[in-house]
């Protein structure tokens, strides 16, 4: 199977494990898990030819570590990014002093007014490194980079969580805790 096909499978898994499990008739449990055998049966019933070895390959080689198996490798879930209500069981953690959020330049004015909002997702996603944040922002056009004063937010009672794939999560980032970085920094990476 080539990389294009692997990417297609990964995107499809993201869709059903994060947003629309009903699309193939599966139901996620409270923590977002689904039985691997059931997932494979339902995916294959909908025209994708995926076996357990291929599923393991997609999970293990996904650069962003978007998916995780349980210890027994009998259940699978998305690591974060859900728009469906699940409790991933992450415990609050102390964030580093600064985190970063990448977005498209067209969103900057709105973010400066309202801050970062989770919108249709369960959390706002933040990165501990600039390169990843810029890559995320590039998906939305010309990238813009925000520095998040995470330590200050935490001291003011905001909770942060670290997902299995090392994405920092929080409910919202008020505009007072954001600093728009020089866009040349974002475009040089």
UniProtKB/TrEMBL annotation:
<keyword id="KW-0520">NAD</keyword>
<dbReference type="InterPro" id="IPR042081">
    <property type="entry name" value="RNA_2'-PTrans_C"/>
</dbReference>
<comment type="similarity">
    <text>Belongs to the KptA/TPT1 family.</text>
</comment>
<dbReference type="Pfam" id="PF01885">
    <property type="entry name" value="PTS_2-RNA"/>
</dbReference>
<keyword id="KW-0808">Transferase</keyword>
<dbReference type="InterPro" id="IPR042080">
    <property type="entry name" value="RNA_2'-PTrans_N"/>
</dbReference>
<dbReference type="InterPro" id="IPR002745">
    <property type="entry name" value="Ptrans_KptA/Tpt1"/>
</dbReference>
<dbReference type="InterPro" id="IPR022928">
    <property type="entry name" value="RNA_2'-PTrans_KptA"/>
</dbReference>
<comment type="function">
    <text>Removes the 2'-phosphate from RNA via an intermediate in which the phosphate is ADP-ribosylated by NAD followed by a presumed transesterification to release the RNA and generate ADP-ribose 1''-2''-cyclic phosphate (APPR&gt;P). May function as an ADP-ribosylase.</text>
</comment>
<dbReference type="GO" id="GO:0016740">
    <property type="term" value="F:transferase activity"/>
</dbReference>
<protein>
    <recommendedName>
        <fullName>Probable RNA 2'-phosphotransferase</fullName>
        <ecNumber>2.7.1.-</ecNumber>
    </recommendedName>
</protein>
């Amino acid at each position: 199977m080539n990389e294009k096909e692997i990417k297609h499978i990964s995107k499809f898994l993201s869709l059903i494990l994060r947003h629309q499990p009903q699309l193939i008739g599966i139901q996620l449990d409270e923590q977002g898990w689904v039985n691997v055998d059931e997932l494979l049966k339902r995916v294959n019933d909908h025209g994708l030819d995926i076996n357990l070895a291929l599923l393991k390959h997609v999970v293990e080689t996904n650069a962003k570590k978007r998916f995780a198996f349980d210890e027994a490798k009998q259940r699978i879930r998305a690591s974060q990014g859900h728009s469906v209500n699940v409790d991933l069981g992450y415990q609050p953690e102390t964030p580093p002093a600064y985190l970063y959020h990448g977005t498209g330049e067209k969103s900057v004015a709105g973010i400066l007014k309202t801050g970062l909002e989770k919108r249709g997702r369960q959390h706002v996603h933040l990165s501990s490194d600039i390169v990843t944040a810029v890559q995320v922002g590039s998906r939305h056009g010309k990238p813009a980079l925000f520095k998040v004063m995470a330590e200050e937010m935490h001291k003011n009672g905001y909770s942060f969580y670290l997902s299995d794939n090392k994405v920092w999560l929080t409910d919202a980032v008020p505009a007072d805790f954001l600093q728009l970085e020089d866009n040349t920094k974002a475009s040089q990476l």
